[in-house]
Structure formats: structure tokens, C-alpha cells
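Summary for the funding panel

The consortium committed to producing paired sequence-structure records for every protein in the target list. Below we show the first two records in order, beginning with the earlier of the two.
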Amino acid sequence: MKIGEKIKQKRKELGLSIKEFLKNQKNLFPKEKILSHTAFSNIENGKTAPSFTTLEMTASVFGLALFELLADTELEENFLIKRKKRHDSFYYNENAFGEVISPFHSAFRAIEMHLEPGAKTIMECSPDAPDIKYEKLIYVLSGRLKIFWNDKKHLLYFGDSLTINSSKPHYFENTHIRPCVFLVFSNPKQY
């Protein structure tokens, strides 16, 4: 089954119209992440492929784990992700962006981040849930990376790694003259 068909099937099983689905989405996620009626309809009808983030958000609105939404679809066994065919990317600004490099069904999210000299990400903070431990492992592939976490600064070089509790405020900055590339592994996955 195609993922768009599965999304439409699940929405109808739950008795939701597209309008009701989008309203539920607005109650759960930031405004800039919300899909339009047209975009969601195009995904259900197979006209456009959903991004990784859209699939995670859709699963959340349905009250499902991502693997449950992907079960019995063409995305269920999506292990190999070619560099030129990565399924989701996002931009903090023109000098700071990331690409999701982990498959849809994994228990964690892996992102390859790129920061040009002087670039930084926005301040982030995972939910502070008492029963869930949110963590990020950061590994520097090239360049130098300054990590601001919980009012502390850490300078990482090629090959260095740092694991943080991502429920504490944090952001990344490249204060060096060369670009910085690093990996971020988040567990559990988040938006």
C-alpha cells in the first residue's frame, strides 16, 4: 500500500475529515510546521511525498507510533538512504541547515548538520517529561563546533562527541573560519 493511501485510510478509520485532522494538528504543533489543506490532500492522493517530519506529525495526530503508520507501506523497509535522495531537510537560516539521514522507522533520528562560518542554530529544548529521557549525541565530522547547553559552553573538534540531555536549552554555533559538519542523533525522535 502507498503511504498516502494508508494515511487516508487511517484518517477515515478515526472518523476525521481533513479539516478535523488539520485542526488537531494545529493543537499539537508549531504554526510553521502545519500543513495546508491542499498539501495534505496531495499527500493522501499520492501527488506529493510526505517529508519525514510530516510522517511523524501525522502519526502523532493519529495517536500512533511512526512504525505503525509505516507498516504495510512502501516505506516500511526503507533502510538505504542515498545522499542525493534524502527524504527531509530543514533550514535554520541560509548558513545553517540539516538533512535527516536515518530511515523512517528507526527508534532515533539522525541528522547531518552543516554550519557555515559564523552560523548558529536557534535555541532548542526538548519536552521536559518525567517519564522520558530526551538525549542528543553530537559527533563532529569536520571543523569546530561550539555547543551552548544548560548555560555551559563546549568546544568540539573533528572526531569529538558530546551527549546532552536535550530537555535543557541548547544551540550550536560555528565560530571558526571553516565550515562545520556534524551528526546529531536524537532519542527519542522529536520534531
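The next record, for a separate protein in the list, is shown here:
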Amino acid sequence: MQTKPFPFARAASCHPPASQAAMAVVRLGSLLALAVSLSMPAVSLAASPSGRLLASQCAQCHGTDGHAVGDIDRLAGESVAEMLDELLEMKYSPRQDKLMHRQARGYSDSQLRLIAEYYAALDGGDDGDDGDEEDEDDRDRDKKKDREKEKEKDKKKTEDRSKKTSKR
């Protein structure tokens, strides 16, 4: 009794020599691609994104280079510790009516650190003068203005509520 060869064995012998050569080239190319990919440094798929990538959302208001236009805070060259403290304070604040508070909640603590490190590493555009006292004075003045604006908003809300209740 004669046994038949497996169908795939017969199919391989049916290919003309040109097709076999083409398949050999494809196999060699695949092996070469595998060798190249194995020689490259391994990158974890779960690696956290860089500070620059994480800060892309911040760039909409604070500028791509950390130099904001208008009355928005400049972040370039600021202290990592100060920025991180402010970001964490915003993240864990019970307030939800501020945009920055909501933005900060979208990041983990380690991601906020990466963002702070990214902006701290950018050129702050200082003129060589230390200027820390002036920067602190500017920040204090800005914070005072913000508090005054908040008080005005709260006062207006209270007045509007009292007007609505008096109309009833």
C-alpha cells in the first residue's frame, strides 16, 4: 500500500524556482527585521510619557515655551518645588470652580512632577539679575488681585441670589 505525501509537502515542491527564491528573500527580510528589532534597546510599553508631552495641555494657556501671553503665569524657569507645590495644592483642593484645579486633577502626582521639571528646565528669559524678590512681589501682587477678583465674584453672586429671592 502506497502512502500519499502530505498536501503541503507536495505544494512546496510545486513552486517554480523563481517563487522559491522570492520566498527565500521574504524569509531573509523577516529575519533581518527581527534581528534589528532585537538589537534595539527595549522600551517599556507602560513607560510614562515625557514631561513635554504631559505639558502639552498646559501650553494652550502658558505657551509652548512656558512664556504665557497676557496675565497668565509664566512657567519657564520657575522652581520645580514651587510649581509642584502649587499643582498639588490645586489637585487636592476641594474647589472645583477653577480651571487649573480641574486640570491638575487629571494627572497623577508623578506626572505633575514631570510637568514641573519640564517647565523648570526651560529658559526663563532672566536678564542675569537674580530678581527673586521681584518675582515674589509680582506673584504676591497677582495672588492678591486674584483674591480680590474672587471676592468681587462672590459678592456679585450673593447680590444676584438676594435679588432672586426678593422677587419671589
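Regarding this second record: The first helix runs from residue 7 to 14. The radius of gyration is 31 Å.
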